[in-house]
Specification:
247 residues, five-stranded parallel beta sheet, Rossmann fold
Length: 247
C-alpha cells in the first residue's frame, strides 16, 4: 500500500495480541496513528490498562477511550452475568459461536471508528480481526469486513460526496495466532504489556482455560517464543515457561 506521509489512520486498540500487532504494523507503514479503545462494560476491564500501555509503547498521535455500555443489552458472558466457557475445544471454534460473542460488537466499534475518520479526514481503519485462530465470531470474518467497507461509502457525508474512499484493513485476517505473534515480535511488540484473558482474577492474572487464554498459550508455543502471561494456575505458568517457550 502506498502511503502519503502524514496520512491518518484510526486503529482499534483492545490491548490484546492482535490489535497490538496491528498497531506496530501501522506504525511501520508510516501512518499517523489515532488509537481507539472501548470501555463497553466488559468483565475483563484490565484490558483497558493494557491498551493504554501498548499504545504508549508504540506511539500514537492520539488515544481515545470511548465509553459505551453494552451491559444494558447483555447477551454475552463478557457483558452479562454468564459463565465464561472454560476448556472448550479450540477445533470447534470456527463452527460454533460461544457465549463470549458480544452481539454486533465489531459493527458498533467500526461505526465509531468510521465516525472518527470522517471528523479527522482519515480514510483508513485498521482492526485486528482474524478468521483462522479465533473463537468463531461472525464479525471477524472477511464477508463482514467487506460489507462494512461498502456500507462506509454510502453511510457518510464524505463517502457520498466522493471526498473519501474508506478502507477497512485487517492485516492479520488469514494468519494463525503463531504467525501473528511472530509478526508482532518482529515488529517490536512487547507482549508482556498485553492482555487476552476473558475471565481474569481481580489482580489481572489470566485464567488459562478460556478460549482466549488457550489460543494465546498455543500461539506462543507454536511460535517458539516465551509466553509472558501471568497465570492464576501454577501449572499454566510452568507450561508457559516450558521447553516449547524456550525454543
Amino acid at each position: 500500500m502506498k502511503i502519503t506521509p502524514g496520512s491518518k489512520a484510526v486503529v482499534l486498540a483492545s490491548g490484546g495480541i492482535d490489535s497490538s500487532t496491528v498497531l506496530a504494523l501501522v506504525r511501520g507503514q508510516g501512518f499517523v496513528i489515532h488509537a481507539l479503545t472501548f470501555d463497553y462494560g466488559q468483565r475483563h476491564r484490565c484490558e483497558l490498562a493494557a491498551a493504554r500501555r501498548v499504545v504508549s509503547s508504540i506511539g500514537a498521535k492520539e488515544h481515545v477511550l470511548a465509553r459505551i455500555d453494552l451491559r444494558v443489552f447483555g447477551g454475552s458472558a463478557l457483558t452479562a452475568d454468564l459463565e465464561v466457557p472454560k476448556g472448550r475445544s479450540l477445533e470447534r471454534g470456527a463452527s460454533s459461536i460461544p457465549v463470549t460473542y458480544v452481539p454486533a460488537r465489531n459493527t458498533i466499534f467500526l461505526s465509531y471508528a468510521l465516525g472518527w475518520c470522517e471528523v479527522l479526514g482519515a480514510q483508513d481503519i485498521f482492526i485486528g480481526a482474524n478468521a483462522v485462530d479465533y473463537s468463531g465470531y461472525p464479525d471477524c470474518r472477511p464477508a463482514f469486513l467487506d460489507q462494512f467497507q461498502r456500507l462506509a461509502q454510502v453511510a457518510t457525508k464524505a463517502g457520498v460526496e466522493g471526498s473519501a474512499r474508506y478502507r477497512i484493513h485487517a492485516p492479520l485476517l488469514r494468519m494463525t495466532k503463531a504467525e501473528i505473534i511472530r509478526t508482532g515480535h518482529d515488529a517490536g511488540v512487547d507482549f508482556s504489556l498485553t492482555h487476552s484473558c476473558y475471565d481474569p482474577s481481580p489482580e489481572g492474572l489470566a485464567c488459562g482455560a478460556c478460549d482466549s487464554c488457550m489460543l494465546r498459550r498455543r500461539g506462543f508455543q507454536e511460535a517458539g517464543l516465551p509466553d509472558p502471561t501471568r497465570y492464576q494456575d501454577p501449572a499454566h505458568q510452568a507450561a508457559a515457561h516450558g521447553p516449547a517457550a524456550d525454543a
